[in-house]
């Protein structure tokens, strides 16, 4: 099992200056290595053993990759001695980020989805660095000893779990302060509890009228934090737009003020997601949810409401918390779950404004999102966890079969 614990750092003024200096040096070298890759791509656009479609009068060069760019760090430290003050793991991870951004642009990720063209990092656009081989003994009480940076205090608002090994440490600069995130691993903890109770299973329907509705009737209202803060945010952004001098201290202060307001909205939403996930996992052990095309929905006229709901972040938090609790989340295709009756599988057409499901065949009547949540769970029955226990149908389908037998 892998976990992440984040704490707020309390660096001194000298340490904060050093952290900012590291970020600026990493940003400069990131831009240099990214430019090196772009230069090679514009000249060659193919490996050295292939015939290019675009010819060049320059002799062919070796294609930049993670390994040869990592070897260039040795020469970098000789030419620019100030880079010797930076830990080697931090520099190597910066090279990895360059390769990851460029490969996603050319080849795509594991699913074949390509990202946009990577951009050069402007001042203040490089926010974090990583120690890729952190150790447990770096942490002593409320202090963490970071190589080449020294001992920095942090607010340990919750203790690290016992039995887990610290693998990485991420130092990040956010709108209000510095933070450290420890990545923890314990291979002995199972991902899914072998004694999981599938009777405690439910399907959930995500929406904009209610944040979610479960198949057994639990309605969680949507908070709409961005909508509530929209007027105040617009006021602060207008003040920022009036400050034309980009080098002024007043503009920098207003930028921080707007950033903090955005951060507050994001944290309110994140806290709501965490509390909702805990509410579900205390009651259920198997949760079936819909695999929504959130990117597609974010390009419609409902974009602001979809982004404010944060369904993608919630599903990720729910899956992580379920794994930690030994529970299971199952994503299913939501196609037809609203139009199909959860009791008799009859097709009952509805428009988006129809909020009530009334089946003319079996006379089932309930909220349309509850009906959809039940259909989510029915679709999830093909998961190996259900098959391993010989589960053939959910409790709602069992009621339908019992009713059919009694009628015969």
Automatic annotation (TrEMBL):
Cas12f1-like TNB domain location: 311-375
Keyword Zinc: yes
Keywords: DNA recombination, DNA-binding, Metal-binding, Transposition, Zinc
Positions in coiled-coil regions: none
Span of domain Probable transposase IS891/IS1136/IS1341: 190-299
Alphabetized Pfam families for the sequence: Cas12f1-like_TNB, HTH_OrfB_IS605, OrfB_IS605
Domain Transposase putative helix-turn-helix, first and last residues per copy: 1-44
Family annotation (InterPro entries): Cas12f1-like_TNB (IPR010095), Transposase (IPR001959), Transposase_put_HTH (IPR021027)
Protein family: In the C-terminal section; belongs to the transposase 35 family.
The name this protein goes by in its record: Transposase
Organism: Gloeobacter morelensis MG652769
Phylogenetic placement of the source organism: Bacteria, Bacillati, Cyanobacteriota, Cyanophyceae, Gloeobacterales
């Amino acid at each position: 099992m892998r976990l992440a614990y984040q704490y707020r750092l309390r660096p001194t003024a000298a340490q904060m200056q050093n952290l900012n200096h590291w970020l600026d040096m990493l940003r400069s070298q990131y831009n240099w290595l990214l430019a090196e890759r772009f230069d090679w791509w514009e000249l060659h656009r193919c490996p050295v053993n292939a015939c290019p479609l675009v010819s060049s009068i320059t002799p062919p060069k070796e294609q930049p990759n993670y390994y040869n760019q990592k070897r260039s760090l040795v020469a970098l430290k000789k030419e620019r001695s100030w880079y010797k003050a930076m830990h080697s793991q931090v520099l190597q991870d910066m090279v990895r980020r360059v390769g990851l951004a460029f490969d996603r642009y050319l080849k795509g990720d594991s699913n074949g989805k390509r990202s946009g063209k990577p951009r050069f990092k402007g001042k203040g656009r490089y926010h974090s660095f990583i120690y890729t081989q952190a150790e447990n003994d770096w942490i002593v009480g409320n202090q963490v000893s970071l190589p080449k940076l020294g001992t920095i205090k942090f607010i340990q608002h919750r203790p690290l779990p016992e039995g887990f090994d610290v693998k990485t440490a991420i130092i990040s600069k956010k709108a209000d302060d510095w933070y450290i995130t420890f990545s923890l691993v314990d291979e002995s903890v199972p991902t899914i509890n072998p004694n999981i109770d599938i009777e405690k299973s439910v399907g959930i329907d995500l929406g904009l009228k209610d944040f979610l509705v479960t198949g057994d009737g639990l309605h969680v209202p949507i908070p709409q934090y961005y909508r509530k803060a929209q007027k105040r945010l617009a006021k602060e952004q207008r003040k920022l737009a009036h400050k034309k001098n980009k080098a002024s201290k007043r503009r920098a202060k207003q930028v921080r003020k707007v950033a903090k307001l955005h951060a507050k909205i994001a944290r309110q939403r994140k806290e709501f997601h965490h509390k909702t996930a805990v509410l579900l996992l205390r009651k259920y052990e198997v949760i079936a949810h819909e695999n929504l095309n959130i990117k597609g929905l974010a390009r419609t006229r409902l974009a602001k409401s979809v982004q404010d709901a944060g369904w993608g972040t919630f599903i990720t938090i729910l899956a992580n918390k379920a794994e930690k609790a030994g529970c299971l989340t199952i994503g299913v295709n939501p196609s037809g779950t609203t139009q199909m009756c959860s009791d008799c599988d009859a097709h009952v057409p509805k428009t988006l404004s129809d909020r009530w499901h009334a089946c003319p065949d079996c006379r089932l009547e309930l909220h349309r999102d509850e009906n959809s949540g039940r259909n989510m769970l029915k679709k999830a029955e093909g998961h190996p966890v259900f098959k391993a226990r010989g589960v053939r149908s959910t409790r709602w389908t069992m009621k339908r079969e019992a009713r059919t037998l009694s009628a015969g």
